[in-house]
Amino acid sequence: MEDKKSQFGFQPENYKLLLIGLAINILGFLLMIGGAATEANEFNESELFSMRRITIAPMLIVAGYIVILYAIMKKNKVKKD
After folding, report:
1. Neighbours of 67 (CB within 10 A)
2. Are 67 and 24 in contact (CB under 8 A)?
3. What is d(CA 54, CA 66) in angstroms, rounded to the nearest whole number?
4. How many CB atoms lie within 10 A of CB 29?
5. CA of residue 41 relative to chain centroid, distance
6. What pLDDT, on the 0 to 100 scale, is given for residue 4?
7. Contact assessment for residue 18 and residue 71, using Cβ atoms and an 8 Å cutoff
8. pLDDT (mean) for 57-66
9. How far apart are CA 54 and CA 58, in angstroms?
10. For the whole model, what pTM was predicted?
11. CA–CA separation, 53 vs 66, rounded Å?
12. Cβ atoms < 10 Å from Cβ of 57
């Protein structure tokens, strides 16, 4: 019988990719923050519907989730002795 050594699923490379994906997600959510009105009857359309909030931030969030998913699903290279 072969002696198979039990290995943990994540390697340091997986953790690096996971942290990169998390940082991209946080950046996307931070880009969505803001636009609060100081008065109840105030509405600033240009700030609320800016390119940053409507297009760039959601794309960064989706990209972050894709990187996180890749980090979780990435297989480790098996070393042959």
Report:
1. 19
2. yes
3. 19
4. 13
5. 35
6. 60
7. yes
8. 97
9. 7
10. 0.77
11. 19
12. 19
Which tops the pLDDT comparison, 28 or 77?
Answer: 28
Fill in the amino acid letter for 6.
S
Structure tokens at 28: 């996307």
Q: How far is the C-alpha of 32 from the C-alpha of 54, rounded, in Å?
A: 8
Residues 68, 22 contacting (CB under 8 angstroms): yes
Supply the pLDDT for residue 25.
97
Token code pair at residue 71: 């980090």
6-33 pLDDT, tens digit each? 677 788 899 999 999 999 999 999 999 8
Helix-then-strand count for the chain, H and E: 4, 0
